[in-house]
Amino acid sequence: ILAKDSDESSFLYLIKDITTSQSRRVSILIELAAGNDPVVHMKTFLLFSRPLNANLSNVVSLRHRENEVGIISAIVHDFIARMGHIGEHLFNFWCHRSLSEALPEFGLHQLLESTLARFSEDYQSRRLLPFRLQRRFLDISSYLVLFDRSSLIDHLHQNLGLYNLRDRSQGAVCLVLRTVSVNYTVFIYIMPHRDIETAFDIFILCLTRSENINGYIVEEGFQRAHQISAVILFSSMTKVSSMLDRASSNIRKMKVWNTFGLGFAGAGDVASMDYIQELRATSTNVDAINSGANEELTALLTDEGNDFHLNWHEVFASIRNRGADFFLHVIECDQTDSGTDYIVYGRNDTFLDISFDAAKRVEHARVLLKALDSGNEDASADETFHEFLLFVLQWLWKDTEKEFLGGNA
Questions:
Q1: CA distances from 247 to 32, 169, 374 (A)
Q2: Sign of the CA dihedral running 240, 242, 243, 244
Q3: Beta pairing class for 131-139 and 40-48
Q4: Where are the beta strands (DSSP E) in 23-140?
């Protein structure tokens, strides 16, 4: 029986009938209690029922009652002395606490660390328990070339849904990844190593269903059998490494994105084709011409006969010099073949990317979206296309008006 009281202490109650005679029922009750420290306290209670037969209570002699109490006491002491599985209950209790919604004040790191200190992996491997808890060290120095561990943790915290993580921090950082390995549910606890700044402490808690995971299986693609527990461990650590690979790549993408976007400090820092190509490679691209996203804009971009008399250089110069309500800045980059690229940043955190060849014809036009975004890509791209079309039409109107007024003058 699991229970909680008002101060978030957790209790586990174990009850077993010791003996049932004609006169009464006797049971032993064991209470396991854990509060806001990693220590579990145990109390044992002996429960006597009232006489099962009320008529016997008047005829049973005092000596008989004393003998009955003595026999029961001996049975209870013998039961407690031979109750070796109490350790297993304690282990299961601690593992249950790590999965509960109410976190202990001392945090999961200390709880899991204390559990393994009391119940080693060797102890667990020799018993059929509903949990298997393992601990490993993960060196992350290879990820920390462009950022530190705190930046990596902040990124994971800010993008929990992206990585299917849960935040179980309580005093200290703790992120939990739930996965499945060899048909077993596994919870992976990811925590900063206390002493090493370039490492994570990883706890792997497998719900074994009290099945033997010391056995061997042959996985598809492998010729040798591997121990199930080792496969679960390897799979879990691989998933963490893969997640960190992805997070590292995303942090780099965001750094490049911010360099061109909100963190833009001047064209001198980014106006090279290497940076432009990296921005394109780390973005989601929505084509303006072939996608049919905006037919009016496509007509302007593919105006090979220049029927609209568009001077694209002046259009982008107008955005750069006079500004626009939607577009914040323009980055111009000359290509090696005398073509020109324009990267225009919008208020909706997107880029309009237009490339011209040496003859001033549009080679490509697209919107660049954050690769991390999901669900609103089409709306963001449509907004950028629409705002650019409006700006170009306004520019055409003003240019035509200027020519008309100049001609009349």
A1: 41, 19, 16
A2: positive
A3: unpaired
A4: 25-34, 40-48, 131-139
Burial class (CB in 10 A: 0-12, 13-18, 19+), 330: buried
User: Is the CB of residue 47 less than 8 Å from the CB of residue 28?
Assistant: yes
User: pLDDT for 130-139, tens place per residue?
Assistant: 999 999 999 9
What's the alpha-carbon Rg for the chain, to the nearest Å?
A: 35
Written as six digits, the tokens of 170 are 């309580």
State the Cα–Cα distance between residues 397 and 390, nearest whole angstrom.
11
Report d(CA 350, CA 341) in Å as an integer: 16
* Residue closest to 197 by CA, chosen among 245, 144, 233: 144
DSSP β-bridge partners for residue 368 = 285, 351
CB atoms within 10 A of CB 86: 14
Which residue do the tokens 């991390």 mark?
A: 372
Per-residue CA distances from 111 to 10, 38, 108, 116, 122 (Å): 13, 6, 5, 9, 19
The residues that bridge with 139 in the sheet, in sequence order, are 199
Do 304 and 365 contact (CB within 8 A), yes or no?
no
Task: Kindly give the interhelix angle for 86-99 and 107-118, rounded to the nearest 10 degrees.
Answer: 160
Q: Mean pLDDT across the chain, nearest whole number?
A: 81
**Tens digits of per-residue pLDDT, 212-225?**
999 998 877 667 88
Q: Give the predicted TM-score (pTM) of the model.
A: 0.72
Spatial separation of the C-alpha atoms in residues 56 and 391, rounded to whole Å:
101
